[in-house]
Amino acid sequence: MADCQLIETCIFFNDKMANMPDMANLYKQRYCRTDNSNCARFTVFSALGRENVPPDLYPNDISRAREIIGA
Ligand code: SF4
């Protein structure tokens, strides 16, 4: 799979989030570089647009993403 199309501007990928998790590099490999279809940030972006992605939403928090989009 290809890189996520948001990789250049995503605050998670570019280490701009507060309290980056120790697992950040693993998440980048798993989500950003391999498959963004299960990324919480990408899920909200796809459904509601960039302005609705919380700044503190981590890629692995898909349950919160589903709550935000009402899925
Ligand atoms: S955190 Fe999600 S939205 Fe951001 S670059 Fe990685 S896969 Fe894409």
Secondary-structure map with pairings?
Layout: H1 24-32, H2 40-48, H3 62-69
Iron/sulfur cluster (SF4) binds at residues 4, 6-7, 10, 12-13, 31-32, 36, 39, 41-42, 59.
Q: Can you tell me about this structure?
A:
- The chain is an all-alpha fold and 71 residues long.
- The chain has one domain.
- Helix content is 37%, strand content 0%.
- The protein is built from three helices and no strands.
- The protein binds iron/sulfur cluster (SF4).
- The site of iron/sulfur cluster (SF4) has 13 residues, from helix 1 and helix 2.
Hetero groups in this structure are: iron/sulfur cluster
Which range best describes the helical content: under 10%, 10-25%, 25-40%, 40-55%, 55-70% or over 70%? 25-40%
Report low-confidence residues grouped into runs of 5 or more: none
Helix vs. strand class? mainly alpha
Shape: globular
Count of alpha and pi helical runs: 3
Number of strands: 0
End-to-end separation in angstroms reads 25 Å
Radius of gyration, CA atoms, in whole angstroms: 11 Å
Main beta-sheet annotation: none
Strand content: under 5%
Order of helices and strands: HHH
**What's the pLDDT, averaged over the residues?**
96
Domain count, please report it: 1
